Amino acid sequence: MNRLWHDIEQNTEVWQTLRTGKATASNFACFMANDGKAFGEPAKKYALQLALEQLTGRKAEFGFKNADTDRGHEQEPVARMLYEDERFVEVTNGGFYDCGDYGDSPDGLIGDDGVIEIKSVIASVHYDTLRRGSFDPSYRWQLVGHLDCSGRDWVDFISYCSDFPESGQLIVYRQDRDDFKDELPRLAERRAQFLELVAQVKKSIEEGLAA
């Protein structure tokens, strides 16, 4: 794997440009759904988005913004600060890991070995995570993607909710590479198949426009 890390701030114009046309870890779940079977509609829509980005050079985010995502951006710095205080560590810029046709932007780096993923969530989601005693499974492939793209040894899933008592506002679950030893090769294989789909969609558009 060719891996190049860019020390840039997330959500900047440069960051968006670097991500254009690349499959990113936050969307790996789109094509990991139905693993071992044909790609579903979310994967096909994502493939079309990436094909168009590669053809136009313009970024078009897959997904949507709502109150939850806005809250996440606003409260992420608070969660990061609490995490640093509780764990006695310094969180440095996550930047962007460019792996060619795909990449990843973790929420932060810890030393030489770790990455973090912060989710600022509503009370019911935080409560579910607390009762589960593990990370939210809907983010499994994003966490696997963090380790795969960064090459680092562990990822801390951080759930933050300001509605909880102070002692329970931050929940942290660590996953090591060994915890995802089965998922890492599955991700690599399925992602390669998905990138082939992107190439096919791109070729189809080019041929259709040239006809």
The biggest beta sheet is recorded as: 5 strands, mixed
Which residue ranges are poorly predicted, with pLDDT under 50 across at least 5 consecutive positions? Answer: none
Strand content: 15-25%
Q: Between the first and last Cα atoms, what is the distance in angstroms? A: 36 Å
CATH architecture tag: Alpha-Beta Complex
Task: Summarize the amount of helix as a percent range.
Answer: 40-55%
Give an overview of the whole structure.
There is one protein chain. The strands form 2 sheets. This protein has a 5-stranded mixed sheet. A 4-stranded mixed sheet has the order 1-4-5-2, sandwiched between helices. A hairpin with a 3-residue loop joins strand 6 and strand 7. It is built from 7 helices and 9 strands. The model has no long low-confidence stretch (mean pLDDT 93). It has a single domain (4-210), classed as Lambda Exonuclease, Chain A (Alpha-Beta Complex), CATH 3.90.320. The protein is an alpha+beta fold and 211 residues long.
Properties at a glance:
five-stranded mixed sheet; 211 residues; four-stranded mixed sheet; 46% helix; 18% strand; Lambda Exonuclease, Chain A; alpha+beta; 7 helices; single chain; globular
